[in-house]
Amino acid sequence: MEKMWAGRFLKASDKLADDFNSSIHFDSRMYRQDITGSMAHAAMLAAQGILTQEDCDEITAGLEGILNDLDSGALAIDGQAEDIHMFVEAELTKRIGDTGKRLHTARSRNDQVAVDLRMYLRDEAGQITALLRGLIAAVLKQAKENTDAILPGYTHLQRAQPVTFAHHLLAYAMMLMRDVSRIEDAVARMNVCPLGSCALAGTTYETDRALTAQKLGFDSYCLNSIDGVSDRDFCVELLAALSVVMMHLSRFSEEVILWSSWEFKFVELDDAYTTGSSIMPQKKNPDMAELVRGKTGRVYGDLMGTLTMLKGLPLAYNKDMQEDKESIFDAVDTVKMCLGVFTPMIGTMTSIKPNMRAAAQKGFINATDLADYLVKKGMPFRTAYKIVGQLVAHCIATGQVLETLPLEEYRSRSELFGEDLYDEISLETCVAKRVSAGGTGPDSVAAQIKAVETFLGASE
Fold it and tell me: Which residues are catalytic?
């Protein structure tokens, strides 16, 4: 196949060099965007009188035929083509003759690939935010079912204070809501059309870049043609947002892995999202969560690879920039795959409330509330702190918890203790007393649930 850029060269390029240079095996996924962009470009050329309407109609019909044949499988992408742009143009010329050669007037592959990539990532970002909303809905469902489940809240992975499982889960809902917003912000800056920048300096033809941008659903067009072809900030920004998504999924995965272990046993994962051992018949492994945790590093690598590729490039386009696609495509694919399995894993997860409560009781996480009880009766906090510490030590030595310690033992430490202390240090009271906004109290959790419902409702 003769290359579209043949003419200046006196000999054919080396086969190994051709293979090294080719991007068709990964950029072929953008065929729909490439063809759609070409249709809009042809329509603009006709509107400006650069192409005749007859030529435009023939080109558009030819492109529609190629798109339909690629969608149906009637046409296979030629792996020997240099890239998707050259494949489409060569196929168009094969079908409609010299008229197809007019399509590339007033554009370059530099602005063509830039517009294809923005359109492709815009579409993929929409799919990812939809998947994130699905996960938020699954988290919300679990939260609603666990407003009465009390477990230890942790700091330093040590039992700290009692919270509801709903409150804990809703923390992830808040993270995921920010992820949606972050991706949408990235898309807003991405949605600027580079087509018409040509190779780097624009064109001598009187084109209408605003028309092309409008036809392709962009908010505006790149104001500087050099920036239009050399900018990959939109890739970096989306990669950064996807890395944050994976960080959140990884943290959530780590907790699911801990919660489903026999040491915690706060949750039971559905069999459909676990695996067994080839040698140990008792095992039920949280492999899906572990893989999500592991794939986080892969997406981080995609981000760092792209940043490193771009950091030393002079303006404008350089072939190094071909490396952007495999990284961003891999990150997009990985995040979609992880969300696809993570959402039903969370949605089918079963909480084991008695185990959560037992852990909360054994962790003495109501000790601060017991000290506050004495303070409210007039004892200095430091004195109360010491007495409660002694009571905790006694419970540990005798295998008891604060709720089961006899009143006589309490009164041997201070006459301020009365029968009402047991209500004061019950886990339900400890949770209910957290009345501050954003806390684990029932009203606050209800407000958080409402906020998530509003977010999901607004995005429907």
Answer: 156, 277
How confident is the model over 366-385, as pLDDT tens digits?
998 999 999 999 999 999 99
**Fold of the 367-425 domain:** Ribonucleotide Reductase Protein R1; domain 1 (1.10.40)
Model confidence, pTM = 0.92
Neighbours of 458 (CB within 10 A): 7
pLDDT in tens, 175-189: 999 999 999 999 999
110-357 maps to which CATH number?
1.20.200.10
CATH topology of domain 17-105: Fumarase C; Chain B, domain 1 (1.10.275)
